[in-house]
């Protein structure tokens, strides 16, 4: 039987988050002077720390939304595993897709979507209905797993990097899903152009599987798939 708490990111995330909280919580015998050094973040530079902390806060929001809206997981691993390494997964242009308020799509290690350092694989994507500058749509966060994870042996900085090896985008309800890919941000390992094309192809396929034609019509909770366009520079 699969150990859900290791297999699916939303559960694994919670285990790592608890370990991270434990690492950064000052014990009673630490003095105020050495408290910052004792957190274990000393290996993370200031600019990187601030960026990762911001991304981590968005991931926490997405994971909470997933929890609050029924903890729905769309497991695509059996579909994506045979497509491992494929570079031309195409999804036909479809009518607007009605998708849930919040859910998680699981790719799994078997999809073999590895980052350039081969230390991480793209494990899945969170979707959360949201607004960006007043525009309705879905924030999505691509998350990673890593081989041989030993949580107890990692310090706070290493745990933070694991939690934030992610890419974050926004799919407007008024534009094609691909339009939002031009403004993705997050860890450079995940935002790599070649890797991102592979991820987006699998996300689009997953959205087609996740759609529910029986859901009430709500134009603010739709995703539009169109013919893929080449990725341009992201800002």
Record keyword descriptors for this entry.
34% helix, alpha+beta, two-stranded antiparallel ribbon, 6-stranded mixed sheet, single chain, 235 residues
Structure write-up:
The chain has one domain (4-223). The radius of gyration is 18 Å and the shape is globular. Strand 4 and strand 5 (135-146) form a beta hairpin. The chain has 235 residues and is of the alpha+beta class. The protein has helices spanning 4-7, 9-24, 35-38, 46-68, 77-80, 156-163, 188-191, 193-210; strands spanning 73-75, 97-98, 102-106, 120-132, 135-146, 167-172, 185-186, 222-223. Strands 1-3-4-5-6-7 form a six-stranded mixed beta sheet, sandwiched between helices. Helix 2 (9-24) packs antiparallel against helix 6. Residues 27-38 have low confidence and may be disordered. It has eight helices and eight strands; from the N terminus they run H-H-H-H-E-H-E-E-E-E-H-E-E-H-H-E. The N and C termini lie far apart (43 Å). The longest helix is centred in the N-terminal third of the chain and has 23 residues, at 46-68.
